[in-house]
Amino acid sequence: MSKAPADCATKEDIRAEIDRLDGELIGLLASRFGYVRRMAELKASPEEAVVPARIDEVLSHVAARAGTAGLDPDLARSLWSKLIDWNIAFERKAIAERTGGN
Ligand SMILES: C=C(O[C@@H]1C=C(C(=O)O)C=C[C@H]1O)C(=O)O
């Protein structure tokens, strides 16, 4: 059973909870990536991988939600920027391989 931070009495307790949450985060990120993979199948050319307005929207959403949740909005922006950069590179390559473009 999971323990709230205040109920953790030892470093081992805390690390067990961090490991548990990391596992959940990986599962969520893998689910998110499933939609990115599908997006790459629907886009017609590698140039479509970058959608600046959508990137701004996602970053604004996660920063706002982070602030509400008590997490530093800059941390959320930084993490999601890295994630989106990786997804764009993935999409570009996947679309290029499928269409023969570059
Ligand atoms: C998933 C998309 O492709 C890219 C990846 C994004 C993401 O990981 O959220 C956002 C914008 C796009 O540059 C999309 O166009 O929505």
From TrEMBL:
* GO molecular function list: chorismate mutase activity; lyase activity
Gene3D superfamilies hit by this protein: Chorismate mutase
Q: Where are the transmembrane segments?
A: none
> Might you give the EC number(s) for this enzyme?
5.4.99.5
**Keyword presence, Lyase:** yes
Which SUPFAM superfamilies does the UniProt record give?
Chorismate mutase II
The protein's matches in SMART domains, at most eight in alphabetical order, are given as: CM_2
Which GO annotations describe the biological process of this protein? Answer: chorismate metabolic process; salicylic acid biosynthetic process
The residues covered by the Chorismate mutase domain are 5-95
Keyword annotations for this protein, in alphabetical order, are: Isomerase, Lyase, Pyruvate
Q: What is this protein called?
A: chorismate mutase
| Species of origin | Kaistia soli DSM 19436
Taxonomic lineage: Bacteria, Pseudomonadati, Pseudomonadota, Alphaproteobacteria, Hyphomicrobiales
